[in-house]
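TICKET: design request
STATUS: open
ATTACHED STRUCTURE:
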C-alpha cells in the first residue's frame, strides 16, 4: 500500500504549548464539555448541523468540526464515533465535497437494513448531536495536476469519495477526460443524480453512464447489467488509456480489478465491505494480552478484532477493512495470518492490523 496522503496539520499555538505540561486532556475535556460539548483540548469532534435526503435510502449530513480538525483531501474518509443505544461504535465515511468555504464537512450515508450506525445517522441522529471525528485517511486522491483520461467506477455508496473527486475536477473546469460509470439496483438509489446530469450536460469532457441492475434502462445515459467482461466491452471505455478508480462493495471492487487491473493504464480501488474470508484455519490458540495480563483462547480463521470483541474487549477500530490503521497494535511473538491474502506474518511488528489478521499460532499482543 502506498504511503498515506496526510492532510496538513495546523500548528499548535505558543500559549497551548506553554500550558500543555499542566493540562490533563481528559480532565480538560470533561469540564469544557459542561460549558460546550464541542470544546476539547485536542480531540477533533464534529457537530451535526444539517441533514437532507440524497436518494431513497441515503442522506447527506453536514458537520461543523471543532478547532482540532486537521483537514483532508478530496477522496479521503474519516472515522466517525457514534453513540448508539449507549455504545460507542466507529464507522468510516467518505467526505463528499472538497473543502467548503464555510468549513463544514459533508458525508452521504446509505441506510443499510439492520445496520446500527447507518440507520442511526439516517434516521435517529439529531441536529446538534456531537460525534467523535478521526483524522482523514485514504489514498484515492488525485495528483496536483491531473492529466490524461480517467475512468471512475462506483457501486452503491462507493460513489461518495469519487463524488468529492468529480466536484474537485469540476471546480477546476474539468481539466481531464472523465467517465463515471455508476451502478445502483434502482434509479431512486442514485445519489447526486441531478448534479451529475447537469455536469454531463455542461461539460463535454465529462461522460456519465448510469447502470441499473434491477430496473430497465429508460434514458439515453442509462444502461442495464452488473459489471462483467461483456458489459465492459459494450461500454467502449478505451480501458488501455484510462487511469481507473473503483469504489464499492468488496465483490464489485474484486470484479473490477480482475477485469481492468492489468489492462488499464493504472488501477486503484477501495472497498467498503471486506471480501469473504476463505481461510479455513480451525481450532483455537492462546492469545496473551501483555498490557492487561489477560490470556484468552481465540478461534483461528477469524479476525483478531472480531474475536477480541466477542470476548467483550473493545480494541480501537474504524474501517474494519485494513485501510485506516486505527486498530494497529504491537505483536511481540507468534504468527498472524493476513485474511485477504492468506500470507503468514511470523516476525514481531509494532503495527499488526487486528481487523484483517487472525491468530495462526499462540500470540502475544501489546494490548
Ligand atoms: C473507507 C470506507 C469509507 C466508507 N464510506 C461510506 C460512505 O461514504 N457512505 C456510506 O454509506 N458508507 C460508507 N462506508 C461503509 C460504512 O463504514 C459502514 O460500513 C456502513 O454505514 C454500515 O454500517 P452499519 O453500522 O450501519 O452496519 P453494521 O451494523 O456494521 O452491519 C450490518 C450488516 O450490514 C452489512 N454491511 C456493512 N456495511 C455494508 C455496506 N457498506 N454495504 C452493504 N452491507 C453492509 C454487514 O455485513 C452486516 O451484515 C465506508 C466504509 C469504508 C471502509
Ligand atoms: S480498523 Fe481500520 S485498519 Fe483496522
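STATUS: resolved
RESOLUTION: sequence designed for all positions
ATTACHED SEQUENCE:
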Amino acid at each position: 500500500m502506498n504511503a498515506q496522503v496526510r492532510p496538513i496539520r495546523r500548528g499548535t499555538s505558543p500559549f497551548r504549548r506553554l500550558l500543555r505540561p499542566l493540562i490533563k486532556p481528559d480532565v480538560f475535556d470533561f469540564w469544557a464539555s459542561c460549558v460546550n460539548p464541542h470544546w476539547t483540548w485536542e480531540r477533533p469532534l464534529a457537530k451535526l448541523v444539517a441533514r437532507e435526503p440524497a436518494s431513497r435510502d441515503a442522506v447527506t449530513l453536514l458537520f461543523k468540526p471543532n478547532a482540532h480538525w486537521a483537514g483532508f483531501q478530496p477522496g479521503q474518509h474519516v472515522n466517525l464515533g457514534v453513540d448508539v443505544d449507549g455504545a460507542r461504535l466507529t464507522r468510516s465515511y467518505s467526505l463528499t465535497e472538497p473543502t467548503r468555504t464555510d468549513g463544514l464537512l459533508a458525508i452521504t450515508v446509505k441506510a443499510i437494513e439492520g445496520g446500527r450506525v447507518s440507520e442511526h445517522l439516517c434516521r435517529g441522529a439529531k441536529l446538534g448531536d456531537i460525534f467523535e471525528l478521526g483524522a482523514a485517511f485514504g489514498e484515492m486522491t488525485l495528483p496536483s495536476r491531473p492529466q490524461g483520461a480517467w475512468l471512475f467506477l462506483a457501486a452503491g455508496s462507493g460513489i461518495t469519495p469519487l463524488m468529492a473527486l468529480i466536484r474537485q475536477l469540476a471546480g477546476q473546469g474539468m481539466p481531464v477526460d472523465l467517465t463515471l460509470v455508476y451502478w445502483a439496483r434502482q434509479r431512486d438509489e442514485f445519489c447526486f443524480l441531478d448534479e451529475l446530469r447537469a455536469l454531463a450536460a455542461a461539460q463535454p469532457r465529462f461522460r456519465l453512464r448510469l447502470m441499473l441492475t434491477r430496473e430497465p434502462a429508460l434514458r439515453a445515459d442509462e444502461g442495464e447489467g452488473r459489471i462483467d467482461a461483456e458489459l465492459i466491452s459494450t461500454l467502449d471505455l478505451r480501458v488501455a488509456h484510462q487511469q481507473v478508480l473503483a469504489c464499492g462493495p468488496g465483490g464489485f471492487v474484486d470484479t473490477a480489478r480482475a477485469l481492468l487491473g492489468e489492462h488499464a493504464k493504472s488501477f486503484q480501488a477501495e472497498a467498503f465491505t471486506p471480501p469473504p474470508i476463505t481461510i479455513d484455519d480451525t481450532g483455537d490458540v492462546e492469545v496473551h494480552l501483555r498490557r492487561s495480563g489477560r490470556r484468552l483462547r481465540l478461534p483461528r480463521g477469524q479476525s483478531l478484532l472480531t474475536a477480541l470483541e466477542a470476548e467483550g474487549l473493545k480494541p480501537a477500530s474504524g474501517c474494519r477493512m485494513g485501510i485506516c490503521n486505527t486498530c494497529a497494535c504491537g505483536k511481540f511473538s507468534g504468527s498472524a495470518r493476513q485474511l485477504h491474502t492468506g500470507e503468514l506474518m511470523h516476525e514481531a511488528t509494532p503495527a499488526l492490523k487486528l481487523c484483517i489478521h487472525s491468530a495462526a499460532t499462540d500470540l502475544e499482543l501489546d494490548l
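CLOSING REMARK: Residues 159-171 form the longest helix (13 residues). Confidence is low (pLDDT under 50) at residues 1-9.
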